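Contributing new records

If you add data, match the layout below exactly. Sequence lines come first and carry their own label; structure lines follow with theirs. Keep one chain per record. Anything else will be rejected by the validation script.
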Amino acid sequence: MEQKTCQQTRTVSERVVFDGDLNDKQTLFGGKTLSMLDENAGLASFKLIHAKIATAGYDHINFWRPITTDKYIKIESFVTGISGRQIEVFTKILSHDLKTDISEIAFTSFCTLMVLRSANVEEMPQIVPETDEEKYLCAGFSDRLAVRKDNYSNKDEFLSHLTMD
């Protein structure tokens, strides 16, 4: 079986936060954050397997610190687990204060992406963590996967309680 390290899937992008990116509280709009997360996580999964993928879900979404226009951000994503056609990608956003030169973790999340059946992928690579951070995050994959599977198996009951009006 082919192996790839988390580092081989790592995707990093940096950007300045502009006034148009802000919500009414003058912090980075959550929808903009999720859009950047989806793009970065998608690219990390493409680095793992060159196939068409689709976002299946997000979990453990945490907005730890506000991001404002006096900061620039660094978005880092890498694959932390694989099960069947599912790829889990961890993303963190670091904010860097332009005045004080201090960086902090502002956002973290896990994203699940699915390799499309039409991609005809026969075998997925095995992911290999190397750093302490990667080992810690990859070690929790099976627990997160079990929760996702449980949620999915109960989706019909959950959806049956929702109204359409």
